[in-house]
Amino acid sequence: MRIFRIEFVIFLMLLMVTLAYRLFHIENENQDSAYNESENPQLVVLGIAQDAGYPQINCKKSCCHNLWDDVGRRKLVSCIGVKNPATKKAWLIDATPDIKDQLNTLLKDDYTLEGIFLTHAHMGHYTGLMELGREAMGANSIPVYVMPKMKTYLETNGPWSQLVNLKNITLIPIYDNQEIVLAKDLKIIPFMVPHRDEFSETVGYKISSSDKSSLFIPDIDKWNKWDRDVNEEIIKVDYALLDGTFYRNGEIWGRDMSEIPHPFIEESMAIFDKLDSEQREKIIFIHLNHTNPLLDRNSQESKDFENKSYQVAQEGQIIDL
């Protein structure tokens, strides 16, 4: 009888330990779940180079010639992603020629692609859509958010019209300064910027959570052509990923750079230097042409740039919103 009692007591003790263990883990799992749900949305830098990448096709000059055999130094075309850890949903801003590598990075850890936002119809910003067609991904009605002129262009010109007709993509119209809600406490607003608009409008985006916000303007002609004061717009946000295509005038040999207008970084810094250091630290230059000396960390321009408050975007960089 005594042996039975001892065994029963041991059984009860083991049962209590097991129940305590399970309750502990259930509580931890709930805490982990709550933590994941409260994680902030993120921006992910998926590429930093101008439309043609780095190195650029057929470039044998000093800016590129060492990169053909040095894959590790190459840069993908300018692009960012938006991730919402609470729902494991993601959005791509611009469909570049490097879209397959960029989507592979963006959708790791079981994220799903909820849509693609386009800025304009220059080759580095929309031609990756072809990878969604039946020759490649064979996608099923991926939402592609486009301004009105861009929508018409894709619907009426091949091969993009085939993507629409085969329902590889579904075009969702967006409009200047009209908010799109992506998720609870996550929204995006397109806004028009002046650029070479041969086939479509050009927009930048403001991406906001309940805590922070960021500008994304990879292409613009000149800051003084915009109907807004860029410094005032920078002050309103927490981060500003801005057009850094060229460092200075004359860096493209044998071409009239007025035909491909962008704000030279030297020009931009002269404007942004009017801001205090806290505001300048928000600025991240992106969309760098293969000739831009800031792509070479050993250049004198890069060394001088280190003493500034500004940043150059880095592939894989994560920005918490």
Structural notes for this entry:
This protein has 321 residues and is α/β, with parallel strands linked by helices. Strands 6-5-4-3-2-1-14 form a seven-stranded mixed beta sheet. The protein has a seven-stranded mixed beta sheet with strand order 7-8-9-10-11-12-13, with no helix packed on it. It is globular. A hairpin with a 4-residue loop joins strand 2 and strand 3. Helix content is 27%, strand content 22%.
Write the layout of secondary structure elements.
Layout: H1 2-38, E1 42-47, E2 79-84, E3 89-93, H2 99-106, E4 112-117, H3 123-126, E5 142-146, H4 148-156, H5 160-165, E6 169-173, E7 180-183, E8 186-192, E9 203-209, E10 213-217, H6 230-235, E11 239-243, H7 265-272, H8 277-280, E12 283-286, H9 300-305, E13 311-312, E14 318-320
Parallel strand pairs: 3-4, 4-5, 5-6, 10-11, 11-12, 12-13
Antiparallel strand pairs: 1-2, 1-14, 2-3, 7-8, 8-9, 9-10
Low-confidence stretches: 23-38
Proportion in β-strands? 15-25%
Overall body shape = globular
Q: What radius of gyration results from the CA coordinates?
A: 24 Å
Distance between the termini: 66 Å
Jot down its keywords.
22% strand, 321 residues, 9 helices, 14 strands, globular, 7-stranded mixed sheet, single chain, alpha/beta
In short:
The protein is of the alpha/beta class.
